[in-house]
Amino acid sequence: MKLLFVDLDDTLLNSDKVIDKPNLDAIEEMVSRGNKVIITSGRPFLSVKKLAEKYGFLREGFYIACFNGGSIYDANTLEKLAENTITVEETRYLFDKAMAAGFHCHTYTETNVVSERDTEALKYYTSRIKMEGIVVDDFRNVVSKPPKMIVICLEGRKKLEAFREEVKHFTDGKLYVTFSNDDLLEFASPLANKGEAVRFMCDYLGVPIENAVAAGDEENDLPMIEAAGVGCAMINGKENVKEKADYVTEHSNDENAIKEIIYRFIL
What we know:
Blueprint: E1 3-6, H1 8-12, H2 21-32, E2 36-40, H3 45-54, E3 62-66, E4 71-74, E5 80-83, H4 88-100, E6 104-108, E7 113-115, H5 120-129, E8 133-135, E9 149-152, H6 157-166, H7 168-171, E10 176-181, E11 184-188, H8 194-205, E12 212-216, H9 222-227, E13 230-233, H10 239-244, E14 247-248, H11 257-266
C-alpha cells in the first residue's frame, strides 16, 4: 500500500479551482488498487469536505488533513482522528497585533470564518474557499478552540514577511508559522503541519513512511515534502519548495501533474 498526500490549491486543483478528469481517473485507479489518498490542505474542514463530496472522495480510501494537518478525518466515516489547536490567548495576542498593523485576520468555528472586521480580504478569502464568514465584536464569544489564525495582506508577501518578523519573539518555539500562498500567513500549533500529518497517517495505517508520496507547491507543503518517502514539488511551485523536493513535476497543476506523480511513484 502507498499513500498520496496531496495539496489542493495550485496542486490538485487547476487555476479554475477544478480537478481535471485525467487526475481524477489516476486517483480512481490508485485507490482501486488498495492505495490511499490524503487530501492535505491549509483549508478548513468544511471547505475541503465540500470539494471531496463534489468529486466523490467521501468514501473508503480517502482521508482529509485540513488546517495543514491540524485536524485529520476519515473521509468515509467523517470521524475526527486527530486535532491540534492554539490557545485563545495566543490568538487574541496575534489578532491585536495584526489589526494594529492594519491587516485582516481571522480564525474559525466548525462552520464559519470568524473575523472582528468586515474587510475586502474577508470577502476574498471566503469566496475562494466557499465558506461563510461572520463578523463579531470579539472572536472569543464564538471560538473556544481556535484551529489556527490567519493574517491576510492583498498587497503581497513582503508586508506579511515583515509582520512575521515583528511577532517572531512571541511565536518562536510556541507556534508553527507558514505561508499557504503569497497573501496568507498562518499561525498554528507546532503539531499542525503537513509533515506531522504524514507521520500520523503512516503510523495510523501501519504504512512505512518510505511508501508515502507527497505533492505540493508552497511553503506550508515543505514539511510533508521533506517527511514523505518521495516529496514532489509542482513545477509551478515556489523555488524553495522545488529545491527541497525529491522530484519536480514536468507538468503544472493545469497540466495534470498529479496524474504524472501517481503513475511515476504509485502505479
